[in-house]
Structures are given as structure tokens and as C-alpha cells.
Amino acid sequence: MTRLSGSGGDQSSGPGDDPHSVALEIADAVDGLATVWSVAAQGASLRLSPHQLRALRILESRPGLNLTTLAEHMEIGPPTASRLCDRLEAAGLLERLLHPHRRREVQLVLTGRGLQVLDEVAARRSQALAAVLAAMEPGDRAALRGGLRAFLTAHGDSGEGTGEDTGLPGR
Predict the structure, then answer these.
(1) Residue 95: CB partners within 8 Å, gap ≥ 6?
(2) For the segment 33-45, what is each residue's pLDDT rounded down to a tens digit?
């Protein structure tokens, strides 16, 4: 496997490498980013699972979803989504409210505490990412930024975009 870290003798030869080799290198970098991301989130005052954080992020961007729609966005079954919401509600992070126009429908809405937790996690993640970026050379940071923009553009043009929040700053 090709590694960005430089370990082993299978480093790539340059910018013209085939997409598969570059994909392997990026996969390694994503693993590192995921670790930074996860560790930073776990340092928040309220520790939440990645699944719980994802549910809160979806509800933050789409307030008032019902349980079925949340489950669809998360690609999980409604019973699993219901248990997830039970835990988030018990922690005081979301509340279930009757829909103002459809009495049989329940809306999921973040509480002030839920929004605070999301803000704290976002701040911790930004700080952790900034610390890694600060260790990079300015030219490497600029190249990374340009590469990420090109990736997001290509991803959007490929029709594979899901409309989900990527979590990348500056979108």
C-alpha cells in the first residue's frame, strides 16, 4: 500500500501518478484526519458517539425533521433512529415536539444544550486541525487547500454528492 507518511519504499513518484495510487495515499491521510477529528470530539465536555454527533449535525442543518426522515438521512432503520433520539433526548440535547400543522407528526429539534455541544465539538476539531496544519509548510498548506477544492468540485460534478455536510470548513 502506498503511504503518504513516507514509510516503506513504495512512495509515489510524482503528481502524474495514476488515480488508484493517489487514492491509496489519500485513504491513509483520511485515516489520520479521522483520528484527529474523533479524538478532538471525544475531548468535549459531553462525549458522544460519532453516530450521535452525526444525528445532531443533521438536525442542526435541517431543524424539525421527523424520525423517519432522520433515519433516511442517516441510512439507518427507524427503530435504531428512535433509540438514538431517546438517548439524545435523555441527555437534554434534543426534544420531540408536535408538528404545528400535522398533529400526528413529531418534529426533532435541538435544544440550546445540543447546539452548545455541537459548537464545542466544532471548536475542538478546528483547534486540533489547525495544530496539524501549523506543522505544515505554508506551500504544503496552500497545495492541500487547492487539492481539497478541486476534489470537492470533481465530487460535485461526478453526481456522487449526497448533499450531506462534508464538515470541511469554508464550504
Answers:
(1) 89, 108, 109, 111
(2) 888 888 888 888 8
Phi, psi of 135 (to 5 degrees): -80, -5
What type of residue is 31?
D
| Residue 85 identity (one-letter amino acid) | C
Q: Smallest Cα–Cα separation from 109: which of 65, 48, 53?
A: 65
Q: Enumerate residues 6+ apart whose C-beta is below 8 A from 116.
A: none
Q: What is the pLDDT of residues 40-62, one digit of tens each?
A: 888 888 889 889 999 999 999 99
Task: Please give the model's pTM, rounded to 2 decimal places.
Answer: 0.72
CB neighbours of residue 165 within 10 Å: 13
**Which residues, 6 or more positions from 127, have their beta carbon under 8 angstroms from its beta carbon?**
40
Q: Mind spelling out the 3-state secondary structure of 68-89?
A: HHHHHHHCCCHHHHHHHHHHHH
Domain segments of the chain: what residues?
A: 21-149
Cell of 147: 487539492
Architecture of domain 21-149: Orthogonal Bundle (1.10)
Between the CA atoms of 133, 135, 138 and 142, what dihedral angle is there, to the nearest 10 degrees?
-30
User: What is the rounded distance in angstroms from the CA atom of residue 19 to the CA atom of residue 43?
Assistant: 36
